[in-house]
C-alpha cells in the first residue's frame, strides 16, 4: 500500500517545523484552559461558603488571567485548525471523514467554554454571587470535553481505528464512534488531563511561592499557594501510576515508538534502561548515557525476561529523531519523579503544621515546579508526536504523503512570519499578565478590591 | 434532503452566523483603527471595546466550526481549497494572529505607546482577515478551486466587499450600542459610518456582480436565475436598515441588517447548489460516507440544544449590561447608570 521509501519532499521540513512550533506554543495555554477554571471555582466556592473575601479576590483574579490565556489559546488554536488543512491536506482530505468528528465536538466544547468564560469573567460586579458561581460551574466540565475530543483525535493518529481500507487504499466502512473511542484514547487522555492539572496547579502555586519567598507572607499568598499546591500534590502520585501504564500501553501498541523512547537498539530480552546518551542511526548504537541492566524489560513487562523489539526492526520506519524522543522521555519521567518528591514533602509538612512549609529548600523547589511541569508537558508532547514519525497515521500514512505541495520557499516564509508574530503575541501576553499583577499588588495596598461583588468602589472611578 | 445536503446547509448556516457576528467584530476593529488620535478616538474606542470584548470569542467560533465541518464532511474539497488557496488563507490566518496579538497587548493599559501599537496591529488584522477570507470565497465562486489562478477581479472585489459588509454591520450594531448605553453623540458618529460603509458596499456589490459576469458567466446566471428572490430580500433588508438607522428601534435595526447579510449569503449558496466546488465537484460527490454525515447531523442537533441557550444567555446578559464591569471606568465620567441595569447584586 505504501511504497517503501519515498523521496522526501522539500516542503516536509518547513511544514513540520511550523506545526511543531505552533503546537509547542499552543500547549502552553492548554493547561490553563483545562485546569485553571477548576481552581478558580474552588476559590470562589471557599470564598462564598466562608464569606472569605481573600479567597474571592483570588478567584476573581484567576478568572481574569484565565480569560486572557483562554483568548490567546483560542487564537493559536484557530491557527492550528487552519494548519491542519494548509500544511497537511493529505491527512484531512483523506481521513477527515474518519477522525473529524472529535474536532467537531471540540468546536462545541470550545464554544460553550468561550460563552461561559465570558459570562463568568465579566459577570463579577453585577450578578448575584451564587448565580455567578453556578454559571461558572460547567466550565471545567466543558473544558474536559474539549480535552477529550482533541486527545481522541491525536490518539486516533497513534492507534487508527473506525475504518477499513479497500484494495486501492480507499476508505470503506467508516465508523466514527470506533474512531473516537480508539485504543489509545484512555491512557493518552488520563495522562494528559493529569498533566494539564499538574502544570496549571504547580505554575499557579509557584507564582505565589515566589511572592512568599520575597516576604509577602499574608493570607492571600497562603491561599494562593495552598489551593493549587494541594491539587498538584494529590495528582502527582496518580500521574506516576498512569504514566507507567501509558508507557506499557505504548510498548504494546507502538513498539517502534517505545524503542525510540527507551533507545532500545537491538531486539531481545533483559534490556537495560539507558538514561540519556546519543543515538547514532548509522551504526544503531548509543554513545554515552547511564545504563541500568534489565530495568527496561522490567518496566515494560514486569520481568527481565520481557522481549523488547529494538530499533533494528524498523529500518525504514524508524522514528526520525530517536535522540530527541529519548531525551524528551527521560526528561519527562525525571521531572515526574522529582515532582513526586515535592508532593510527598508538601504532604508530610502540611499534615504536621497545617501551613505552607517554611523550609527554604522546599520553597525554592516549589517555586521552580511550574517551569518543571511545563518542560515535562512539552517533552511528553514531543514523545507522542516525534515518536510516531515517520507516520502521521500510525502504520497507515507517512507524514510526507500528507504534506501540502505548496512550494517549500512559501512555507519557510509563512513559518518565519508566524514565528515573529507569535513572539509578539507571547510578549503581549506576558506584558499583560505582569501589568495585571502590578495593578493587583497596588490595589492590595488600598484594600478596596475586597469588595469583589457589587459595583466598583467610587475611589477607582 | 440527503444527509450531504443537510450538512452543506449547516455549513451555510455557520457561514451566515460568522458573517453576521464575527465579521462585524472585524468591522469594529476597522472603526477602531480609523477612530483618529488618542483624544478624539477615546470614546468610540471605549464603546467598541466594551461592545466586542465579552462576545468576540463566541463570534469567532463559527469560523472554526466551518473548517472542522468542511474537513469532516467534505475532506477532498477541503484539501483542494487549502492547497489552491494557500496564500489567501495564510493571509487570513495572519490577520487572526495579529488581532489576537493586538488584543493581548491592548490590555496592558499602562503604556500609551504600546496601546497605540496594539490598536494598530488589531486594526490591520481586522482588515486582513475578512479581506482574504472574502477573496477565498470569491475564488471558490469563480470556480478557481482546484484549477488555480485564484487572482481574479471577482475574488479581490468579494474580498473588499466582505470588509465593507463587516464594517457596515458593525457600525449598525455600534450605533445600537450607543443608544443602549446612552451616548447620543456616538449615535450620529456611527450612523455616518454605517452610511459610508453601506454605500461603499452597495457599489462594491454591483462591481463584484459585473466582474463575476466576466469571470464566470455561468455562476452569474445562476445567481440571477435562482438567487434573485434572496437578492431582492437582501437589498430590501439592507435598504430598510439604512432607514431604521435614523430611528430608535435598535433591536429591529440589528435584526434587519443581519437578515440582509444572511440573505446575501443564502443567495450565493442557492446559486452554487448542488456544487461544492463550481463546477467540478457536487455536494453529493464530495461528501463523506453516510455514517460520518449522520453523526455530524446528530452532533449538530446536540450543539443546537447546548449552544443556543448558552448563546442566548450571553447576549441577554450582555444587553442587560451585566457583563460590563469596567464600563464606568473606561468610558470616563460621561456614563450615568445605564437604564437597562436592574439590580446590582450585593
Describe what this molecule looks like in 3D.
The complex is a heterodimer of chains A (461) and B (346). With 461 residues, chain A is mostly helical. Chain A contains 15 helices and 8 strands. A two-stranded antiparallel sheet of chain A has the order 1-2. Chain B is mainly alpha-helical and 346 residues long. Chain B is built from 12 helices and 2 strands. Chain B starts with a helix and ends in a 16-residue tail after the last helix. The relative contact order of chain B is 0.13. The model of chain B is unreliable at 326-346 (pLDDT under 50). Classes of the chains: A mainly alpha (461), B mainly alpha (346). At the A-B interface, helix 2, helix 3, helix 4, helix 5 and strand 2 of A face helix 3, helix 4, helix 5, helix 6 and helix 11 of B.
Q: What is the H/E string of chain A?
A: HHHHHHEEHHHHEEEEHHHEEHH
Q: Which regions of chain B have little confidence, pLDDT < 50, spanning 5+ residues?
A: 326-346
Q: State the separation between the terminal residues of chain B, measured CA to CA.
A: 53 Å
Helix content class of chain A: 55-70%
What summary fits the major beta sheet of chain B? 2 strands, antiparallel
Largest interface: A-B, 84 and 78 residues
The biggest sheet of chain A, with number of strands, parallel, antiparallel or mixed sense and barrel status, is: 2 strands, antiparallel
Class of secondary structure makeup of chain B? mainly alpha
User: Percent of residues of chain B in beta strands?
Assistant: under 5%
Strand order of the largest sheet of chain B: 1-2
Helices and strands of chain A: which structural class?
mainly alpha
**What percentage of the residues of chain A does DSSP assign to strands (E)?**
under 5%
Separation of the first and last Cα atoms of chain A: 69 Å
